[in-house]
Prior knowledge:
The chain has helices at about 15-30, 40-50, 55-60, 70-80, 100-110, 125-130, 140-150, 165-195, 200-205, 215-225, 235-250, 255-270, 285-290; strands spanning about 5-10, 30-35, 50-55, 65, 90-95, 115-120, 120-125, 135-140, 155-160.
Amino acid sequence: MSETTAFLGLGAMGxxxxxxxxxxxxxxxxxxxxxxxxGAKATAHAREHGSEAVTLSxxxxxxxxxxxxxxxxxxxxxxxxxxxxxxxxxxxxxxTSGHPEAARxxxxxxxxxxxxxxxxxxxxxxxxxxxxxxxxxxxxxxGVLERVRPVLAFAGKxxxxxxxxxxFAVKAVNNALLAVNLWAxxxxxxxxxxxxxxxxxxxxxxxxxxxxxxxxxxLVGQRVLTREFPLTFGLGLLAKDxxxxxxxxxxxxxxxxxxxQTEALFRAAxxxxxxxxxxxxxxxLLEQMNGQEIR
Length: 295
């Protein structure tokens, strides 16, 4: 049976994700609706990818609604704007890097309308979104996931991680680990630079040794050493995610001193360096602390 999907939020991740849904709709005989706060983006998406630019009230009539917005606050606003038009039996899949508590609140609110909710944040960056190889970590009812699994055209891997809110919790901790690895690599390389060591060959050694990480292999060399810092994932958004991870730690009554310190560091970096800079630019704060560029 062909289904109508609606994708809300056409940012750096949402635009290619919605494009995969449009391609699937063409192949399966379904419809792929798109909405964005800036309507021109939705119109351009429809022209380029064959989706249909619609109003929120029309998007509410879809069988499966996807959202990919900056924070849970924007998701709350959109839910409030269209909940009166929602149909029982609809599934809402929120791909925002949201807050677990917000997921539980939103799921309860939508349940009153007969709408099922999955928190389904993604990992893989803009390259993974464009390639359709994103990893999706899903919280919510397993049966609801199975219903929408065939529609997840932007995914390379889909993992059910637990009940409502679990997807957001896993994403937050994952991104906190990204921040930990990025900052730790920066600390080590800044110290080596101050010691007079050539950073580029030092990084080559690290990436062939036990100290390597995704940050050292795919971020530091291409973004920090080159001084390019191309904007793909905002520093402010990473700081937000690390803050959510810290909330997860506190709610669980867990002990995670490194993650908690990383939250403070990245909030400071977002303030000093700029929330709108690429997340790798956090190391500029570390450079200021050391009086030494990592290059």
